[in-house]
Amino acid sequence: MSGAAASPKAADTTANATASVSRIAGFQHRLVRASIAAGVGGLLSILFSLSYAALIFSGHHLSSWLSYGTAATFITGAVGGAIIAWRSSLPFAIGGPDGPTCAVIAALVATLAKHFTGPQQDLLPAILVALVMTSALSGVLLCTLGIARAGRAIRFVPFSVIGGFHGSSGPLIILGALKILSSQPVSITNLDELVAPHNLENIAAGLAVAAFLLGGRRFWPSPLAMPAQLVASIAIFYVVLLLAGIPVSEAQAGGWMFDVPSGESIAPTWTLDFSLFPWASMPTLAADFMAVLFVGTVSVLLNLTGVELSTHHEADLDHELRAVGAANLVCAALGGYTTCITSTRTNLNYLLSRGGRLAGLMISAISGVLLFVNPDFLAYMPKAVLAGLLITIGADSVKRWLIDAFHQLALSEYLSLVAIVVIIVGWGFVPGVSIGLIFGCLTFAVSAGRVNVVKFAFDGSEYRSSLDRGPRELALLATHGHALQGLSLQSYLFFGSANRLYERVKALLAATPECRFLLFDCRLVTGMDSSATHSFAQIKRATDASGARLVLVHLPPSLVSAFAGLRLLKDDILLFPELDRALEHCENEVISAHKKEGGDVRSLRDWLREALGSAPLADKLAAECKRLEFAEGAVIAEQGAPADSMHFVVEGRVGIIVDMGNGRSVRVRSLGRHTTIGEMGLITGHPRSATVRAETPSVAYELSAATFERLKAEHPVLAQALLMYVIGVMAERLSFASRLIGVLQR
Description:
Blueprint: H1 2-56, H2 66-87, E1 95-96, H3 99-115, H4 123-147, H5 159-182, H6 191-194, H7 197-219, H8 225-244, H9 248-253, H10 282-311, H11 317-334, E2 340-341, H12 343-353, H13 358-370, H14 383-403, H15 411-427, H16 429-450, E3 454-459, E4 467-468, H17 471-480, E5 484-493, H18 495-511, E6 517-528, H19 530-546, E7 549-553, H20 557-565, E8 574-576, H21 579-594, H22 604-612, H23 615-624, E9 626-630, E10 635-637, E11 645-651, E12 654-661, E13 664-671, E14 675-677, H24 679-684, E15 691-694, E16 698-704, H25 705-714, H26 716-744
Parallel strand pairs: 4-13, 5-6, 6-7, 7-8
Antiparallel strand pairs: 1-2, 3-5, 9-16, 10-15, 11-14, 11-16, 12-13, 12-15
Helix pairs in contact: 1-2, 1-3, 1-12, 1-13, 1-14, 2-11, 2-13, 3-4, 3-5, 3-10, 4-10, 4-11, 5-7, 5-14, 5-15, 5-16, 7-8, 7-14, 10-11, 10-12, 10-16, 15-16, 17-21, 18-19, 22-23, 25-26
């Protein structure tokens, strides 16, 4: 017995041990994958970070401070990368400096250096303050968008403007790479220095590395290709020096490597003297700061979109904005600059680690360790390798935004994109931002102008309320329905579209002089500017001149206020919250204006004589019907009940209500006097499909199913006449539905 009792316990112990071994093996497997991903991604991040630092601190005056630039870059990679890896909704996300953002930061630093009038030794603190400010402002903006859940508003920025700002980063990065190789700003004025033999050799070496990186993709389409090619490029550089017999010191003196002085390179925010920043130059630098904020924000969107497509994982955009915003704020506090979710390194990490946050945290730790490494190692880093990497990044941006976009955009949008790129590269971000805003406004105006503000037009003879009417009233509406003219409006109304609406109204009133009601359904109108309200004042004068009344439906409070300010909402303008109520009111007015005195049918017999075309048949059918009176709200027939009768409504009004389930019901239509209900159920025998309820005190005559069956046997002529009447009613309703579909498809 003791052995039998011990068996389950031993089995549990074995199962627990197996599960523990499985968990340990799984952890070891994930650790190995994460370590490989961190090693490859860390190497790539180091080289990217060094290239971005060289891009920002390039040129003769700034290159001597490259050690500070590398420290700020590694702070950005370490702190920003750790927070993004920890908080991102994509567990494999890698954060750090990004190419387009660094390109506009480099342009900001160059503008600051150009307009700096203080002592030269104060330029470095001013640049470091500018870097911290870009990160802080980006953090505040991103957090605000994320907290307000307004991230998707970025998607409404015209693509040509987004492409213009991002497309300019490609040429700017390439020009920055050439500046690194030649230690000279690239311009027409110093072209003779750029083509000097020693500069041409450096530029040729950088282009060779870029060609090696770009060409290698065709033969080795692997995520490991670029890191391996970069390491190989560094090795090839030193092999060439060895074969040529050139000492490293001579290569350094010849400008093939970076000349980096040793010393302190970490500059936390609390050690910076913010008074050294040229605050008086902020109006000049404002456009560059705006460009950093715009490009950085849009980069989050674009990079996330690319990662989602590549990894088939959906990100929470608002959550990502908050996470990247928090990372930027912490980077600003510790002396870094703008960080972002990177696409290339994130996709690489996903392929190597298959998810998990460990690799991202390890990559950020590698950047953190490099903060404490002596920056003298940069003196052994070939300029051609980092510049070649930058040229590759710039070429990818040019291909994406300037070459591929040619086949994706309309010609006008593409030309505006190219114009923004040319202006930013040639004249800077101040005119670029201005032109971008102008193009954005023009794009909106042109796009909005192409949208027809009239979704569909109708008149009272083809588009009616949900109230079913008797034959005589329907005949009056068919004949005189043109007295009601309606326009269903949509989109945003501004000067151009509202003026076209006014011209259309003038033509409509001229073509239909019998128009007495001009109805505007504003349910789909998203807004209206002040100039559009003046067009409605013109429309009001035109309707007054033609003798028509203006009917406004679904007028939102903002438009009510705008119209009230122009004193348009006078007593002769009809306002309705619902289109159906407005249509019914206008129909009643049209019917009343054209109804003959004393011509209304009142008794059941008179109605049936006209409907059946025979007085004896009408008298016989009326005699078989039972008169019923219903108080307001009384249920005449219940949904789902047997269809055991039909009713002839002589007085009042009844509603047809469909139970949608979950306690919801919808009134689908109303029936006025001289209409019938339940005729289809009486013929088919199917249960009632809706509830019928009296909306006002009503009088109806009931014909039971048993009586109808008896009439078919005893009086087939009467039954046939009644069926023909029902078919006529159904045909009229079907014809109306067809006309309505035709109106909606205009």
